[in-house]
Amino acid sequence: MSVYLHDIPLKEAQSRLDQTLAAVDLSGLLGVEDIALDENAVGRVLAKTVWAKISSPNYHAAGMDGYAIRSSETAGATLAKPIVLTCGKENTTLQAIYIDTGDPLPDWADTVIPIENVEPLSFDRRVSDDPRQPSAIRIRESATPWHHVRHVGEDLVASQLILPAGHTLRPVDLAAIAAGGHSRLAVARQPRVAIIPTGSELKPIGQPIEKGQIIEFNAIMLAGQVDQWGGLAFRYPIITDDIETIRNRILAVANDYDLILLNAGSSAGAEDYSARVIDSVGQVFVHGVAVRPGHPVILGMVNQGLTGDKLIKPVPIIGVPGYPVSAALTAEIFVEPLLSRWLGRPSTEPISVTAVLTRKVTSPAGDDDYLRVMLGQVGERLLATPLPRGAGLISSLMKADGISVIPSGTQGLPAGEKVEVRLYCSPTELSRTIMAIGSHDLTLDLLAQSLAGYRRKLVSANVGSLGGLLALKRHEAHLAGSHLLDPASGEYNISYIHQYLPEVSIVVVMLVKRDQGLLVQPGNPKAILSLADLARPDITFINRQRGAGTRVLLDYLLEKIAIPIAIVNGYNQEEYTHLAVAAAIASGRADTGLGIAAAAQALGLDFIPLYQEPYHLVIPQEQYEGNLLAPLLQILTELDFRKAVSAMPGYDVSQMGEVVATISANEI
């Protein structure tokens, strides 16, 4: 097969898709539906331009409660020389009549004078029982024509354009269309999209899984994207890796849908059947696109023809890669533009901003590299922190504030480089984002949850305590979590702040005191009792990364008991969070690691306490005194938050929120 996993440039892949769709007359609207104005019209796309049938308002209407008059009869009225006008029931001699806001203006009147600007005179109950309708009124100011009047067509004029074809309807649009005299609408038929997950290792959501099994969550993500973009998604049950079963499912659903998304099996492995299946029911015209992640995408067509006694219409089919990041990106690149075309609207153009990369990134030279980033405004700069790159990391999709495309031919970008970022969030969210870079602690997750109630978003990047201080030095964070022990003094963080932040005034705030100890498998099968057991050849250790406070503590404690790091089996195996260390032990990749008690509890491990340490928030004074962090500092004083932290094992919150030290730049 000539197109089998031949990576081609994205533009060429899109061009092949366009040509194939044009050949089967699938380049535009799929159809038009006539719906009632109140029939779930919000979010639908207009198939035809809407013109006003009637003017709105269709009569001259009072803009205020007051008296309809002829403006010419008030000429010359002043405070000293008022004019008196007769009023009451409408007749040929009438000079004024009371009307409410929205009432039709009498044919003989051309303006309205507000009720508060007149003096009512005598009342004749034979004329009116309404106290607002006297026999006469006194006016002390001349009126101008058509003042306080909503004239015919002030809002819409008959035959005026209300909304163009291709517009996605909002609630306010429905009101405008109704005001223009319409009760029904012509909207684009919503594309129907079948999502077929494949893979013998997959298990449905909600069912228990065993080793070697994976929860099938791509389909629900893809369906959400389709629905968000205006289509109608239909998820089918999981199919095992069997060519004939997959083929039969495609043929069974093809006539009922406009697009088929076949998820997983798009690569070149022994059980990656998608390309062969699609080729057997139609044609594969692209297999492999030069983008990362997501390069093994398949673009094909279920061809028109007879299958048994059933006629299969031409239906585009996309083989979506199985890794979630690749699947989501494939949908963004190919599915959203296709749905927009079929709905007759322009493809979505997200807001773009310019941001500064906080660290170096590398890219494959021959591919367009889609880099997901977290964003935060620190000072005058908008900063983009790259998220982990693995195609299977669903958490990176959840955390991403936007995506930046590093074009093919570029092998990476240095820290400090400016990049364009397509936003996944509102720009206003960026100004409310707190960037916390440094050591990992589970308390930060609770803090992020509490901050949501204060319209703040906490973004954490786990790079270790030293990495956090360096981020503050580069003005890339609002605060850093740190627990760096100075072995010489036994003091935490202060000496490191003197060393790495000599030009920044700093406030050190206590977050928690926490227990550090050894995490071991349930039941402690290796009978690990202390750090001395790390010298045993049968014990495999999992470490934290260089610069992490936990690693500094480990080195200090090992030196105290004279255990060389060279004999610790696994010392060079590194993870970036306490939970990642716990996961390594729970999965059997290691026997033990140094971490916090809460991480052990979270993954059902046993915990051997060794040491209590303080975990500080290191905050530049400028940020400490600013509005952005005010809610965070307030939360640290709240009893409910302290109770939530105390509920986790190994935490002491007695000093939470206290200022440990204030270090002025000129004192350093």
How would you explain this protein's 3D organization?
This protein is an alpha+beta fold and 668 residues long. The protein folds into five domains: 10-27 and 191-343, Molybdenum Cofactor Biosythetic Enzyme, Chain A (3-Layer(aba) Sandwich), CATH 3.40.980; 32-57 and 154-188, Alpha-Beta Complex (Molybdopterin biosynthesis moea protein, domain 2); 61-150, Molybdopterin biosynthesis moea protein, domain 3 (Molybdopterin biosynthesis moeA protein, domain 3), CATH 2.170.190; 352-428, MoeA, C-terminal, domain IV (Beta-clip), CATH 2.40.340.10; 461-667, D-Maltodextrin-Binding Protein, domain 2. The strands form twelve sheets. Strands 33, 34, 35, 36, 37, 38, 39 and 40 form an eight-stranded mixed β-sheet that branches. Helix 12 (549-560) links the parallel strand 35 (541-544) and strand 36 (574-575). Helix 3 packs parallel to helix 6 (324-343) and helix 4 (243-253) packs across helix 5. It is flat, with a radius of gyration of 35 Å. The two termini are 68 Å apart. The mean pLDDT is 89.
